[in-house]
Amino acid sequence: MHCIQYVHRMQQTDAAHARLREMIVAGAYAPGQRLTETEVAGALAMSRTPVREALRSLVADGLVRSADGRGVVVTALDPAALRDTYRVRAALEALTAELAAERQAAGLIAPAELTALAADAALTEEATDAGRLADAVAYNRRFHTRVAALSANAPAQAVLDRLWDQIVVSTRASLDAPHRPAQVNGQHRELLAAITEGRAADAAAVARRHVLDTCG
Questions:
Q1: Measured at the alpha carbon of residue 79, what is the angle toward residues 189 and 53, in degrees to the nearest 5?
Q2: What are the extents of the domains in the chain?
Q3: CA-to-CA distance for 10 and 71, rounded, in angstroms?
Q4: Is the pTM of this model over 0.90?
Q5: Strand (E) positions, 76-152?
Q6: Is 3.30.930.10 the CATH number for 2-74?
Q7: What are the pLDDT tens digits along the chain (216 aa)?
Q8: CA dihedral sign, ordered 121, 162, 103, 204
Q9: What is the CATH class of 79-215?
Q10: Whole-angstrom Cα distance, residue 40 to residue 191?
């Protein structure tokens, strides 16, 4: 019985964490907004216990910070921290692009996976050109997430996911069209070609440059 209760509690905690993370990243809760266990539990129609554990996990994820015992506050990175985060992301995306290209050269990536990657690049470009910025951000993240998945490096994927969350939350208020859309889209195509052709060093270089150019 205790084992069943424990599993149920963990499932509830995981569900609360996933839902609350999704809401913060989507902008339902803005940076600086205070969240309390009672308010979040009501919004999620859950008890306070899984919500309390979910909030602790989100502190570890860097999406919220403790608010002196009165709940938590949604966190946005300051400019210096944001630059540092982009630099770490650049290093990890260079690694995952390199590994993806190596796996492609070794015949470990299915053609359908590369087709899906190309489709995400095209959707990103289309949304950017049409001025649909929110869609462009979502497709862009999906493109980069797919590259990370093709690397088959779970630790890198997990860290990148957290970094992406922090960047999205921290930059949403200043969301603007890319200043160099042709460059962004061109770099996506370069990265896609390098991975497809199994050119690991080129894939790493393009991925690193792309992230750092995005940071500006």
A1: 90
A2: 2-74, 79-215
A3: 21
A4: no
A5: none
A6: no
A7: 456 665 556 788 899 999 999 999 999 999 999 999 999 999 999 989 899 999 999 999 999 998 877 789 999 999 999 999 999 999 999 999 999 999 999 999 999 999 999 999 999 999 988 888 889 889 999 999 999 999 999 999 999 999 999 999 998 776 665 667 778 889 999 999 999 999 999 999 999 999 999 886
A8: positive
A9: mainly alpha
A10: 41
